[in-house]
Amino acid sequence: MDSLNRELMFNMYRKMYLIRKFEQKAIQLYWEGINRGALHTYIGEEAVAVGVCSALEKGDYVSSTHRGHGHCLAMNGDPRIMLAELLGKENGYCKGRGGSMHIADLDLGVLGANGIVGGGIPIAVGAALALDYKNTKKVVACFFGDGATSTGAFHEALNLASVWKLPIIFICENNLYAISTCVVNAVALEDLAHRADAYGMKNKVVDGNDVLQVYEEARKAREMVLTGEGPVFLECKTYRTEGHWVADPQIYRQRTEIEEWKKKCPIAYLKKNLIHLDPSYEKELYAIEQKVDEEIKQAESFAKNSPEPDPKDVLHYVLV
Ligand SMILES: Cc1ncc(C[n+]2csc(CCOP(=O)(O)OP(=O)(O)O)c2C)c(N)n1
User: Fold this and answer.
1) Which of 1, 200, 262, 282 is 20 to 30 A from residue 100's alpha carbon, by CA?
2) What average pLDDT is seen over the chain?
3) For the whole prediction, is pTM greater than 0.70?
4) Which domains does the chain have, with CATH numbers?
């Protein structure tokens, strides 16, 4: 872990805590009837986005999913503009026309969330082809769920990326479920990482709730793909501790299973490890939490006070 320093670890803690608080605020606003769009939260999976994105460099890209808030915040997306988008406001990332599943910020390298399961994967491969063609020495980090690994687009895109040796890291967020379908009922492999074997692609299973491990493996993967030997596939084993979407009754899994995974909270885990390293860090982490809490308050106020789109412009920026 030579590549890890105190500042980096604190920054990873800050981002994971920010994602958690952002999602909790989005849920609260949903039940208050203020956030009316679809909402798939990233609670429990924060270490994956933060570990991977902390290993990226300026000029790299990420492709996201329908569960995309964590990816965007991990790439330094603005929580105020994101929350305004969720509330359908003119100041949102898509001027309120896109909602949760279409947030993108090309300046930050966020190619966009995507409501089509597996839809981001070929887009990421296209972006990697462009980076390669321009000889940029930059990479794409392509996020998708366990369910997406059973789409045709996944297999076609992985094959092409491997044949063309593109600079792309495939990151499977295996949270055990695709809506209500447990992965064991969908795929006859213990590790989804082995799906990459079929395409001659290096792959690794990672503890997706340990941000330091995710970071380290993503950092190594980035170096590897830049040697021109082709993509790397990381399967990050994790769990979404909330429903598939905000109002999911979750009748397909046991409460005890959820409680067990809550004990493996990636944020609490990093906090415990940092305090173990140096007890004085507790105070600093608390200060970080206070600052993020304030940031979320400001995001809420910004979003609530942002203007609604003018009804006469409602079809602007929309393909009809
Ligand atoms: C092509 C397509 N098929 C089906 C759906 C409906 N759908 C939305 S989310 C989802 C499950 C995705 O599971 P996974 O890829 O594991 O991601 P997770 O939700 O667990 O993050 C499905 C089937 C969709 N949006 N797009």
Assistant:
1) 262
2) 97
3) yes
4) 6-305 (3.40.50.970)
